[in-house]
Amino acid sequence: MDHPIKRDHARFRKIIKGKIRDNLRKYVSQGEMPIPKGNGQFKVPMPQIDTPRFRFGDKSQGGSGQGEGQPGDSVDGQPGEGQPGQGEAGEGEGNKELEVDLSLDELAHILGEELALPKIEPKGKKNMQSTVDKYTSIGTVGPDSLKHYKRTYKEALKRQISMGTYNPKNPIIVPIKSDMRYRSSTSKIEFENSAVVIYMMDVSGSMGDEQKEIVRTESFWINLWLKSQYKDIEIRYIIHDASAKEVDEDTFFRTRESGGTLISSALKLCRDIIKSDYNSDEWNIYPFHFSDGDNWSTEDTKLCLDILDNEIIPHSNVFCYGQVESRYGSGQFYKDLAARYGEENDNVILSKIKNKDAILESIKDFLGKGN
Fold first, then answer.
1. Is residue 43 within 8 Å of 101, Cβ to Cβ?
2. Can you state the percent helix, strand and coil of the chain, rounding each to 5?
3. How far apart are CA 262 and CA 308, in angstroms?
4. Portions of the chain given CATH number 3.40.50.410
5. Which candidate, 29, 125, 360, places its Cα nearest to that of 224?
6. Which of 134, 175, 131, 130 is closest to 155 using CA atoms?
7. Which of 26, 111, 149, 305 is most deeply buried (CB count within 10 A of its CB)?
8. Can you say how many angstroms the Cα of residue 295 is from the centroid of all Cα atoms in its chain?
9. Helix, strand or coil for residue 192?
């Protein structure tokens, strides 16, 4: 039987998860994100949870502590007591938010429940080879750390009974070397599915801080879900205006340029990364491109479509394009992709992200098909 404290703790965590799920849209739309703590744990801000407490009823109902008197009067009638306190306000902080720790799998489960996300069906075959030792048998040799005391005791007992040396009135069991039993492992080669996510973002002058914050928030939750689906995952970042370059995560979200936009520069670099580092027969490949939809020319858009058709889409689980609305962006690239692939396509997923309130629906667009 479970200890009452464990049951209460499990019930509390269930309440916590329900609160987080109820407030998930608020967290995402306000740009709040769980803080990684290491070891797969995240710190999550929580709304205040009310605890049971006494409430005062109506005075007309009677009861102890009611009768004549005014607010501030002393309880025992001594003069000078019961008056409002005097003095300066304290310096301490107040009204702190509750924070709880949840694992990656717990957060992913909350996201999956909220958006009704299906489990991903991996496209890549096998990439990461691992040797798993499972202790499923018993051997007669091994280190002391793997000694199986229960089985050793049984062997010694059987030996003493068979030899007639066991005395029920004085049941002393003394194992000898031949009685010793050890947990024995069998090694099994397993192949785990691995994934790579390649983020591309337009950092030209028309993509402002608000647009980048949307991309940052959305990519965090996309990564969270994909990490819960794959044993091993790599993430690459590409920024571009008229030219493209690979950068680290911090540079990806902080860089802002003022030049024009050649989307093909990002797609070319993405293509080159896939060719050099990721065999599509082994890897599950997820290219994501975020832009406000402006491109330099129709000729560059034709080049983009050619690269997608022949060198990116055939090697990817799915190509995802998120168009972040900007007052300076025309949104034309979305229209060009929709005209080529349609807005309902298993290989190309398009999503319009009007503002932060649309982030969760965009994530559902991208991940809702289980590709």
1. yes
2. 40, 20, 40
3. 15
4. 193-367
5. 360
6. 175
7. 111
8. 33
9. strand
Asked whether 368 and 117 are in contact (CB, 8 A), the reply is: yes
Give per-residue pLDDT as tens, 127-140: 445 555 667 788 88
Q: What confidence category does residue 126 fall into, taking pLDDT thresholds of 50, 70 and 90?
A: very low
Per residue in 311-325, pLDDT tens? 999 999 999 999 999
Instruction: Tell me the backbone φ, ψ of residue 88, rounded to 5 degrees.
Output: -85, 155
Give the amino acid at 89: A
> From start to end of the chain, where are the E strands?
35-38, 41-46, 98-103, 128-139, 182-192, 194-202, 232-240, 244-247, 283-291, 319-324, 348-353
Rounded Cα–Cα distance for residues 179 and 163 (Å): 14
Mean local confidence (pLDDT), 112-134: 70
The Cα 328–Cα 333 span in angstroms is 14
Using alpha carbons, select from 250, 284, 265, 276 the residue that is nearest to residue 200. 265
Between residues 110 and 290, which one has the greater pLDDT?
Answer: 290
Decide if pLDDT at 298 tops 90.
Answer: yes
Domain at 193-367, CATH class: alpha beta
- Token pair for 161: 């009974």
Closest CA to 23 of 53, 57, 48, 4: 48
